[in-house]
């Protein structure tokens, strides 16, 4: 399900027009419609997610990342710092084009899309950290 469709469904569930949501959030008219082509910033997506009480991941995929019970180990402060450090390292390399320019379909990845990429990458790193904690420390992380 596309991001626009998810937002449209959320609006329908609240009997709220897309234009009313744009007004409520201080967006220009038609700005949510631009989501059909993927043009928006992470800040806008976060504002919409906060308004509806969902995650940005839900807006972009239509699904919450729910981990199976056996991999739902809680992350501690060190784990969160490790994730932040890994994310920062990857994004620094992407932004500095250290290993060459990052591109999609032959075009450089725009700055706004890099923010979306960073958000999805953080979600993946978090999920992998939880899975790895369970796989490599099964007794320590049992509930």
Overall description:
- With 143 residues, this protein is an all-alpha fold.
- It has 2 domains: 3-61, 434 Repressor (Amino-terminal Domain), CATH 1.10.260; 69-136, no CATH class.
- Helix content is 57%, strand content 3%.
- The chain has helices at residues 3-13, 18-25, 42-52, 56-61, 77-96, 111-136, and strands at 103-104, 107-108.
- It has a two-stranded antiparallel ribbon.
- Helix 5 runs antiparallel to helix 6 (111-136).
- The longest helix is centred in the last third of the chain and has 26 residues, at 111-136.
- The protein is globular.
Major sheet details: 2 strands, antiparallel
Assembly level: single chain
Unreliable residue stretches: 66-72
Broad structural category: mainly alpha
Q: List how many beta strands DSSP finds.
A: 2
Share of residues in helices: 55-70%
* Helix-strand topology string: HHHHHEEH
Spatial order of the strands forming the largest sheet: 1-2
């Amino acid at each position: 399900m596309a991001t626009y469709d998810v937002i449209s469904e959320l609006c329908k569930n609240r009997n709220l027009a897309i234009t009313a949501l744009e007004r409520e959030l201080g967006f220009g008219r038609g700005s949510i419609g631009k989501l059909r082509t993927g043009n928006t910033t992470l800040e806008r997506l976060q504002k919409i997610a906060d308004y509806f009480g969902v995650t940005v991941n839900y807006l972009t995929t239509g699904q919450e990342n729910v981990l199976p019970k056996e991999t739902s180990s809680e992350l501690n402060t060190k784990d969160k710092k490790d994730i932040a450090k890994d994310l920062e390292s990857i994004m620094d390399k992407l932004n500095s084009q250290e290993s060459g320019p990052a591109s999609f379909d032959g075009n450089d990845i725009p700055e706004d899309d890099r923010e979306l990429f960073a958000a999805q990458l953080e979600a993946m790193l978090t999920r992998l950290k939880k899975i790895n904690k369970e796989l490599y420390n099964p007794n320590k992380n049992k509930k």
